[in-house]
Specification:
D-Maltodextrin-Binding Protein, domain 2; 2 domains; disordered N terminus; about 15% strand; about 375 residues; single chain; alpha/beta
Length: about 375
């Protein structure tokens, strides 16, 4: 009995098999299709493996975050500046507040050098487990990008901002090598002796503050870089250099010793710690204004639940008497910003200071001496 289907309508070739294999049911699959099926199977297997791994990592991360912070471990606030600086004083206030109020052991580790690059790179390389926190600022996350060559970190991609710490204006100082009592006297002397007066710096912020003065006052000075602000301050008080812009905390012991004199402040208003010292604007540099900010960061890939817990710890510490007193001592103001706000601020500042520095390149700025 036939099915009534014409033989010419369905041939082995049209079925995708050869005449030779048409009589063997076990060879109905074209041999050429086997590698393709194998690759598809491998792709599916890899996808399943990745999903299982992702699920396992998610479970492990959640478990780790649930137990964070482990009070048997120390939180480490890494400060890429020298001991005794304003940033160091404030970081230690945070460490004390967190340790006492939450019972979580917290220490400060200083890693100064290379205009803060050494410390920032150490923080970048730390395990993203929440136990290493970077005390960064507008030098490390904005100015270094524009002012240093071959920066070994990306301030946006390599770090997650936790919370803002403080904003601050700086102070320009004279030492025993000169008798200046004002910024006006500095400018007059610099115009009379181009390239003779020297200034020190230990960060890109303190260097840029002086380069802005050169640009706006149309003078030329000699730049002498140091590894840390403490070294630069010692150089000024020892008469090795003539000028230095720094924070109040770094300068304070030198004021008390009579080896350093405040000449002017860089912000839009006078500092509370130095109410008798006028701003540079008040002294005739009408367009001058320079302020800096600081914030806490963790390495990229730190789990979000850990970031949230750390942010809460630091926000609570910011309300403590220890941190409040440290800010007041340094004439700094609270810089209350969350992760999203800090990310936006960093991007805005990168654009702003990039333009400022491009403008500065169009003028003659100070040559740099060898360290």
């Amino acid at each position: 009995m036939t099915l009534g289907i014409p033989r010419s309508g369905f041939t082995p070739a049209k079925l995708g098999v050869s005449r030779q294999s048409a009589s063997r049911p076990e060879s109905l699959i074209d041999a050429a299709a086997v590698p393709k099926l194998h690759r598809q199977f491998e792709t599916i297997s890899m996808t399943i493996s990745r999903l299982l791994l992702l699920t396992l990592l998610t479970i492990c991360t959640a478990a780790s975050a649930q137990g964070f912070p482990d009070k048997s471990k120390q939180l480490r606030i890494l400060v890429p500046f020298g001991a005794g600086s304003g940033n160091d004083v404030i970081a230690r206030a945070y460490a004390r507040a967190i340790s006492e109020e939450s019972g979580q052991p917290t220490i400060v580790e200083n890693k100064p050098g290379a205009e803060a690059v050494i410390g920032v790179e150490a923080a970048k390389s730390a395990a993203p487990d929440g136990y290493t926190i970077l005390f960064g600022n507008s030098s490390t996350h904005v100015l270094n990008v524009h002012m240093l060559q071959k920066l070994p970190y990306d301030p946006v991609a390599d770090f997650i901002p936790l919370s803002g710490v403080a904003s601050v204006a700086l102070v320009m100082n004279g030492g025993p090598s000169t008798k200046f009592r004002s910024v006006k006297e500095v400018v007059e002397a610099a115009r009379a002796n181009p390239g003779k007066l020297s200034y020190g710096s230990g960060t890109t912020s303190t260097r840029l503050a002086m380069e802005m003065l050169e640009h706006l006052a149309k003078v030329q000075l000699l730049s002498v870089p140091y590894k840390a602000m403490a070294q630069a301050a010692a150089a000024l008080s020892g008469g090795e250099i003539d000028l230095l812009v720094t924070d109040v905390s770094t300068a304070l012991p030198h004021y008390q010793a009579g080896r350093m004199r405040p000449l002017g402040t860089t912000g839009p208003k006078r500092l509370t710690a130095l109410p008798d010292v006028p701003t540079l604007r008040e002294q005739g540099i009408s367009q001058y204004e320079f302020t800096a900010w600081s914030a806490m960061f963790v390495p990229a890939r730190t789990p979000s639940p850990v970031v949230d817990k750390l942010r809460l710890l630091f926000q609570q510490a910011a309300q403590s008497k220890y941190v409040g007193d440290a800010l007041a001592l340094n004439s700094q103001e609270p810089f209350d910003m969350n992760t999203a706000q800090l990310n936006a601020r960093i991007r805005t500042d990168l654009d702003h200071w990039g333009k400022v520095l491009r403008d500065l390149k169009g003028t003659a700025i100070s040559p740099r001496s060898k360290e």
